[in-house]
Amino acid sequence: MKNKKMLYILLPLVLFVWGLIFYKVYNSINSSNQIVSEPPATTNLNDSNLYKMDTFSIFNNYRDPYLTKAVSVVKGNSHTINKPIPDKSIQVHTEVKWPSIIYNGVIKSKKSLKKLVLLKINGESNFMSTGTSSMGVEILDIYNDSIKVNYKGEFKVIKK
Fold first, then answer.
1. What burial class does residue 100 get, using C-beta atoms within 10 Å of its C-beta: 0-12 exposed, 13-18 middle, 19+ buried?
2. Under the phi-then-psi rule, with left for phi > 0, alpha for psi from -120 to 50, and beta for the rest, what region is 135?
3. What pTM was estimated for this model as a whole?
4. Domain ranges of the chain
5. pLDDT at 84 exceeding the cut of 80
6. What's the average model confidence in pLDDT over 22-33?
7. In angstroms, how far is the first alpha carbon of the chain from the final one?
8. CATH 2.30.30: does it fit domain 101-159?
């Protein structure tokens, strides 16, 4: 009985809402009211109030985020910029010629969990573990598919 009472209340409400929707759509389609805009009024171009000079000044005495050590100084209308001081700690990087390194595989010990790597450095086979070096090539990390090596201060990852 409760459901029938709700049906008698909600059915007319739904029909009323859909009726409003169809009425608004029908009116918007068949509307003959068109908005006509009027052309803008003509203005006198010689009017002095129409064009006024805008005066402003820009104060750019903030830190430049791209120049680390450059300082800009603003005094009145003159603007001077001090050139950045070159960093003397920059060293000239020389190209390091790496030896031929071929990563052949890894051997894992079940008891000590130690890993040995079979490397071929300049044609010579070597068994190496983490922290050992041969011919200037030091093993830093051992992974299943690659190794990380150090040679004369440069690091490289070598894959199988």
1. exposed
2. left
3. 0.40
4. 101-159
5. no
6. 85
7. 78
8. yes
